[in-house]
Amino acid sequence: MSRMRELIGRIRNLPTLPVVIAKLTRLLADPETSVKRVTRLLAEDQALTAKLLKLANSAYYGFAGQVASVSQAVVMLGFGGVRDVALSASVIDLFGSGGEGDELSELFPVDRFWEHSIGVGVACRALARSLRWPDPEEAFVAGLLHDIGKLIMLQHTPGDLLRVLRLCHDEGLTFVDAEARCDVSHAALGRLLVEQWKLPERISEPVGFHHQVRPKRATARVTAAVQFADAFARGRGVGRSGDDFIPRVQPEVAEMPGIDDLDMDVYIERFDEEMRKASVFLELAGGLQGEGEPG
Questions:
Q1: In this predicted model, what pLDDT tens digit does every residue of 109-131 receive, in sequence order?
Q2: Contact indicator for 79, 86 with CB cutoff of 8 Å
Q3: Residue 77's domain is classified under what CATH number?
Q4: Rounded CA gap, 148 and 214, in Å?
Q5: Are 147 and 116 in contact (CB under 8 A)?
Q6: Model pTM score
Q7: 168 and 178 in contact (C-beta within 8 Å)?
Q8: Which of 59, 171, 174, 239 is the residue whose CA sits 20 to 30 A from 183?
Q9: 287 has pLDDT over 60
Q10: Which ranges of the chain does DSSP label H, i.e. alpha helix?
Q11: Total of domains in the chain
Protein backbone atom coordinates (compact mmCIF):
# COMPACT_ATOMS: atom_id res chain seq x y z
CA MET A 1 0.00 0.00 0.00
CA SER A 2 2.93 2.36 0.55
CA ARG A 3 3.84 1.83 -3.11
CA MET A 4 0.25 2.61 -4.11
CA ARG A 5 0.25 5.78 -2.00
CA GLU A 6 3.46 6.87 -3.69
CA LEU A 7 1.96 6.07 -7.10
CA ILE A 8 -1.21 8.04 -6.35
CA GLY A 9 0.93 10.93 -5.12
CA ARG A 10 2.72 11.03 -8.47
CA ILE A 11 -0.56 11.33 -10.34
CA ARG A 12 -1.19 15.02 -9.82
CA ASN A 13 -4.02 15.55 -12.27
CA LEU A 14 -6.45 12.73 -12.84
CA PRO A 15 -8.61 13.10 -15.95
CA THR A 16 -11.77 15.12 -15.34
CA LEU A 17 -15.14 14.66 -16.94
CA PRO A 18 -16.67 17.45 -19.03
CA VAL A 19 -18.30 20.11 -16.88
CA VAL A 20 -21.71 19.29 -18.34
CA ILE A 21 -21.49 15.67 -17.07
CA ALA A 22 -20.78 16.84 -13.53
CA LYS A 23 -23.69 19.28 -13.77
CA LEU A 24 -25.91 16.53 -15.20
CA THR A 25 -25.10 14.19 -12.30
CA ARG A 26 -26.06 16.89 -9.79
CA LEU A 27 -29.17 17.86 -11.74
CA LEU A 28 -30.46 14.30 -11.91
CA ALA A 29 -30.02 13.93 -8.15
CA ASP A 30 -32.74 16.59 -7.75
CA PRO A 31 -36.19 14.93 -7.59
CA GLU A 32 -37.70 18.12 -9.06
CA THR A 33 -35.64 17.90 -12.25
CA SER A 34 -37.60 18.27 -15.49
CA VAL A 35 -37.01 17.13 -19.05
CA LYS A 36 -36.71 20.78 -20.03
CA ARG A 37 -33.91 21.47 -17.54
CA VAL A 38 -31.95 18.37 -18.60
CA THR A 39 -32.37 19.23 -22.28
CA ARG A 40 -31.23 22.81 -21.72
CA LEU A 41 -28.11 21.59 -19.89
CA LEU A 42 -27.15 19.05 -22.55
CA ALA A 43 -27.51 21.74 -25.22
CA GLU A 44 -24.48 23.49 -23.67
CA ASP A 45 -22.18 20.81 -25.15
CA GLN A 46 -22.88 20.33 -28.84
CA ALA A 47 -20.24 17.62 -29.33
CA LEU A 48 -21.73 15.58 -26.48
CA THR A 49 -25.24 16.18 -27.83
CA ALA A 50 -24.20 14.77 -31.22
CA LYS A 51 -22.77 11.65 -29.58
CA LEU A 52 -25.86 11.26 -27.40
CA LEU A 53 -28.17 11.40 -30.42
CA LYS A 54 -25.97 8.95 -32.34
CA LEU A 55 -26.05 6.46 -29.48
CA ALA A 56 -29.75 6.94 -28.77
CA ASN A 57 -30.52 6.25 -32.44
CA SER A 58 -28.39 3.10 -32.54
CA ALA A 59 -29.81 -0.41 -32.65
CA TYR A 60 -28.30 -1.00 -29.21
CA TYR A 61 -31.02 1.06 -27.52
CA GLY A 62 -33.81 -0.04 -29.83
CA PHE A 63 -34.73 3.43 -31.13
CA ALA A 64 -32.94 3.37 -34.48
CA GLY A 65 -33.91 6.46 -36.48
CA GLN A 66 -36.61 7.53 -34.01
CA VAL A 67 -34.79 10.15 -31.88
CA ALA A 68 -34.73 13.54 -33.62
CA SER A 69 -33.92 15.81 -30.67
CA VAL A 70 -32.26 15.84 -27.27
CA SER A 71 -35.63 16.23 -25.54
CA GLN A 72 -36.83 13.07 -27.30
CA ALA A 73 -33.68 11.26 -26.18
CA VAL A 74 -34.33 12.31 -22.58
CA VAL A 75 -37.94 11.10 -22.73
CA MET A 76 -37.20 7.82 -24.52
CA LEU A 77 -34.06 6.85 -22.61
CA GLY A 78 -35.16 8.26 -19.25
CA PHE A 79 -33.01 10.35 -16.93
CA GLY A 80 -30.84 7.42 -15.85
CA GLY A 81 -30.39 6.24 -19.42
CA VAL A 82 -29.36 9.70 -20.64
CA ARG A 83 -26.86 10.04 -17.79
CA ASP A 84 -25.28 6.67 -18.51
CA VAL A 85 -25.15 7.14 -22.29
CA ALA A 86 -23.64 10.63 -21.93
CA LEU A 87 -21.16 9.37 -19.33
CA SER A 88 -20.09 6.43 -21.51
CA ALA A 89 -19.56 8.66 -24.55
CA SER A 90 -17.57 11.18 -22.47
CA VAL A 91 -15.28 8.57 -20.88
CA ILE A 92 -14.47 6.95 -24.23
CA ASP A 93 -13.74 10.36 -25.73
CA LEU A 94 -11.70 11.46 -22.72
CA PHE A 95 -9.06 8.74 -22.96
CA GLY A 96 -8.80 8.49 -26.73
CA SER A 97 -7.24 5.65 -28.68
CA GLY A 98 -3.62 5.69 -27.48
CA GLY A 99 -0.33 5.70 -29.36
CA GLU A 100 1.16 3.33 -31.90
CA GLY A 101 4.38 1.60 -32.76
CA ASP A 102 6.19 1.20 -29.43
CA GLU A 103 6.48 -1.78 -27.07
CA LEU A 104 3.76 -0.48 -24.77
CA SER A 105 1.21 -0.08 -27.54
CA GLU A 106 2.05 -3.57 -28.84
CA LEU A 107 1.54 -5.15 -25.42
CA PHE A 108 -1.48 -2.99 -24.61
CA PRO A 109 -3.36 -1.98 -27.79
CA VAL A 110 -5.95 0.55 -26.66
CA ASP A 111 -8.47 -0.36 -29.36
CA ARG A 112 -8.52 -3.95 -28.06
CA PHE A 113 -8.79 -2.61 -24.49
CA TRP A 114 -11.92 -0.65 -25.41
CA GLU A 115 -13.35 -3.64 -27.23
CA HIS A 116 -12.97 -5.68 -24.05
CA SER A 117 -14.35 -2.94 -21.80
CA ILE A 118 -17.36 -2.41 -24.03
CA GLY A 119 -17.86 -6.18 -24.15
CA VAL A 120 -17.91 -6.33 -20.34
CA GLY A 121 -20.40 -3.46 -20.28
CA VAL A 122 -22.60 -5.28 -22.78
CA ALA A 123 -22.33 -8.51 -20.78
CA CYS A 124 -23.28 -6.67 -17.56
CA ARG A 125 -26.28 -5.05 -19.23
CA ALA A 126 -27.38 -8.37 -20.76
CA LEU A 127 -27.12 -10.03 -17.34
CA ALA A 128 -29.05 -7.23 -15.64
CA ARG A 129 -31.79 -7.47 -18.27
CA SER A 130 -31.90 -11.27 -18.03
CA LEU A 131 -32.34 -11.01 -14.26
CA ARG A 132 -34.77 -8.07 -14.55
CA TRP A 133 -32.69 -5.65 -12.52
CA PRO A 134 -34.09 -2.10 -12.39
CA ASP A 135 -31.08 -0.27 -13.92
CA PRO A 136 -29.33 -2.26 -16.67
CA GLU A 137 -27.72 0.90 -18.09
CA GLU A 138 -25.92 1.55 -14.81
CA ALA A 139 -24.67 -2.04 -14.95
CA PHE A 140 -23.32 -1.25 -18.44
CA VAL A 141 -21.38 1.75 -17.09
CA ALA A 142 -19.89 -0.31 -14.23
CA GLY A 143 -18.72 -2.89 -16.74
CA LEU A 144 -17.41 -0.29 -19.17
CA LEU A 145 -15.31 1.37 -16.44
CA HIS A 146 -14.11 -1.76 -14.62
CA ASP A 147 -10.53 -1.58 -15.97
CA ILE A 148 -10.27 2.21 -16.33
CA GLY A 149 -7.35 2.20 -13.88
CA LYS A 150 -5.22 0.60 -16.60
CA LEU A 151 -5.71 3.70 -18.73
CA ILE A 152 -4.66 5.88 -15.79
CA MET A 153 -1.44 3.85 -15.64
CA LEU A 154 -1.01 4.20 -19.41
CA GLN A 155 -1.37 7.99 -19.26
CA HIS A 156 0.38 8.79 -15.98
CA THR A 157 2.72 5.92 -15.04
CA PRO A 158 3.50 4.08 -18.29
CA GLY A 159 6.67 2.59 -16.80
CA ASP A 160 4.62 0.75 -14.17
CA LEU A 161 2.20 -0.53 -16.80
CA LEU A 162 5.07 -1.71 -19.01
CA ARG A 163 6.66 -3.63 -16.11
CA VAL A 164 3.34 -5.35 -15.41
CA LEU A 165 2.78 -6.21 -19.07
CA ARG A 166 6.29 -7.61 -19.46
CA LEU A 167 5.68 -9.94 -16.51
CA CYS A 168 2.43 -11.06 -18.11
CA HIS A 169 4.17 -11.65 -21.44
CA ASP A 170 7.52 -13.07 -20.28
CA GLU A 171 6.46 -15.09 -17.22
CA GLY A 172 2.88 -15.97 -18.09
CA LEU A 173 1.39 -14.15 -15.09
CA THR A 174 -2.12 -12.81 -14.91
CA PHE A 175 -2.35 -9.01 -14.93
CA VAL A 176 -3.42 -9.00 -11.26
CA ASP A 177 -0.56 -11.30 -10.18
CA ALA A 178 1.92 -9.19 -12.13
CA GLU A 179 0.54 -6.06 -10.43
CA ALA A 180 1.07 -7.69 -7.04
CA ARG A 181 4.74 -8.16 -7.93
CA CYS A 182 4.97 -4.46 -8.78
CA ASP A 183 2.84 -3.25 -5.83
CA VAL A 184 0.29 -1.48 -8.02
CA SER A 185 -3.45 -1.96 -8.54
CA HIS A 186 -5.48 -0.84 -11.53
CA ALA A 187 -8.66 -1.56 -9.55
CA ALA A 188 -7.65 0.82 -6.74
CA LEU A 189 -6.66 3.52 -9.24
CA GLY A 190 -9.91 3.09 -11.12
CA ARG A 191 -11.96 3.40 -7.95
CA LEU A 192 -10.03 6.55 -7.01
CA LEU A 193 -10.84 8.10 -10.38
CA VAL A 194 -14.54 7.18 -10.27
CA GLU A 195 -14.83 8.56 -6.73
CA GLN A 196 -13.17 11.79 -7.87
CA TRP A 197 -15.79 12.00 -10.59
CA LYS A 198 -18.38 11.78 -7.77
CA LEU A 199 -20.17 8.84 -9.32
CA PRO A 200 -22.16 6.66 -6.90
CA GLU A 201 -20.73 3.71 -4.96
CA ARG A 202 -22.86 1.48 -7.20
CA ILE A 203 -20.23 2.21 -9.85
CA SER A 204 -17.06 2.97 -7.87
CA GLU A 205 -17.16 -0.23 -5.78
CA PRO A 206 -17.62 -2.61 -8.73
CA VAL A 207 -14.64 -0.87 -10.36
CA GLY A 208 -12.55 -1.20 -7.19
CA PHE A 209 -13.53 -4.72 -6.13
CA HIS A 210 -14.35 -6.61 -9.33
CA HIS A 211 -11.44 -8.99 -8.68
CA GLN A 212 -12.47 -9.60 -5.08
CA VAL A 213 -16.22 -9.29 -4.52
CA ARG A 214 -17.29 -8.52 -0.96
CA PRO A 215 -20.60 -10.41 -0.63
CA LYS A 216 -21.89 -8.41 2.35
CA ARG A 217 -21.55 -5.02 0.67
CA ALA A 218 -24.68 -3.32 -0.63
CA THR A 219 -23.01 -3.14 -4.04
CA ALA A 220 -22.13 -6.85 -4.13
CA ARG A 221 -24.70 -7.72 -6.79
CA VAL A 222 -23.37 -5.29 -9.39
CA THR A 223 -19.75 -6.08 -8.44
CA ALA A 224 -20.49 -9.78 -8.93
CA ALA A 225 -22.04 -8.99 -12.31
CA VAL A 226 -18.85 -7.19 -13.37
CA GLN A 227 -16.65 -10.10 -12.28
CA PHE A 228 -18.90 -12.57 -14.10
CA ALA A 229 -19.05 -10.36 -17.20
CA ASP A 230 -15.28 -9.88 -17.26
CA ALA A 231 -14.70 -13.64 -17.26
CA PHE A 232 -17.49 -14.19 -19.78
CA ALA A 233 -16.25 -11.56 -22.26
CA ARG A 234 -12.73 -12.96 -22.05
CA GLY A 235 -14.12 -16.44 -22.64
CA ARG A 236 -15.89 -15.14 -25.76
CA GLY A 237 -12.61 -13.65 -26.97
CA VAL A 238 -13.85 -10.06 -26.95
CA GLY A 239 -10.93 -7.64 -26.97
CA ARG A 240 -7.89 -7.78 -24.72
CA SER A 241 -7.03 -6.06 -21.47
CA GLY A 242 -3.40 -6.88 -20.72
CA ASP A 243 -3.28 -10.67 -20.54
CA ASP A 244 -4.93 -13.67 -22.18
CA PHE A 245 -6.27 -15.41 -19.08
CA ILE A 246 -9.91 -16.02 -18.23
CA PRO A 247 -10.18 -14.93 -14.58
CA ARG A 248 -11.65 -17.35 -12.09
CA VAL A 249 -15.12 -16.44 -10.82
CA GLN A 250 -15.46 -16.54 -7.04
CA PRO A 251 -17.76 -19.31 -5.73
CA GLU A 252 -19.85 -16.62 -4.00
CA VAL A 253 -20.41 -14.99 -7.39
CA ALA A 254 -21.34 -18.20 -9.18
CA GLU A 255 -23.81 -18.99 -6.40
CA MET A 256 -25.55 -15.60 -6.33
CA PRO A 257 -29.31 -15.73 -7.02
CA GLY A 258 -29.97 -15.47 -10.72
CA ILE A 259 -26.40 -16.16 -11.78
CA ASP A 260 -26.49 -19.66 -10.30
CA ASP A 261 -29.28 -20.82 -12.62
CA LEU A 262 -28.68 -18.57 -15.63
CA ASP A 263 -29.61 -20.23 -18.93
CA MET A 264 -26.22 -19.85 -20.60
CA ASP A 265 -27.43 -20.73 -24.11
CA VAL A 266 -30.01 -17.93 -23.99
CA TYR A 267 -27.53 -15.56 -22.35
CA ILE A 268 -24.84 -16.19 -24.98
CA GLU A 269 -27.36 -15.59 -27.75
CA ARG A 270 -28.45 -12.31 -26.15
CA PHE A 271 -24.86 -11.20 -25.60
CA ASP A 272 -23.77 -11.94 -29.16
CA GLU A 273 -26.75 -10.03 -30.54
CA GLU A 274 -26.21 -7.02 -28.25
CA MET A 275 -22.47 -7.02 -28.97
CA ARG A 276 -23.22 -6.69 -32.68
CA LYS A 277 -25.51 -3.76 -31.92
CA ALA A 278 -22.83 -2.16 -29.72
CA SER A 279 -20.72 -1.38 -32.81
CA VAL A 280 -21.68 2.28 -32.25
CA PHE A 281 -19.64 2.26 -29.02
CA LEU A 282 -16.73 0.59 -30.80
CA GLU A 283 -16.82 3.35 -33.41
CA LEU A 284 -16.63 5.99 -30.67
CA ALA A 285 -13.65 4.17 -29.18
CA GLY A 286 -11.57 4.46 -32.33
CA GLY A 287 -13.26 3.35 -35.48
CA LEU A 288 -13.42 -0.37 -34.77
CA GLN A 289 -15.90 -2.07 -37.04
CA GLY A 290 -17.45 -4.40 -34.46
CA GLU A 291 -19.45 -6.14 -37.17
CA GLY A 292 -18.22 -9.71 -36.77
CA GLU A 293 -19.15 -12.44 -34.38
CA PRO A 294 -17.56 -12.23 -30.93
CA GLY A 295 -14.87 -14.80 -30.29
A1: 999 999 999 999 999 999 999 99
A2: no
A3: 1.10.3210.10
A4: 20
A5: yes
A6: 0.90
A7: yes
A8: 239
A9: no
A10: 2-10, 19-28, 35-42, 46-56, 70-95, 103-107, 110-130, 136-144, 148-156, 158-171, 175-182, 186-196, 201-209, 220-235, 251-254, 264-277, 279-284
A11: 1
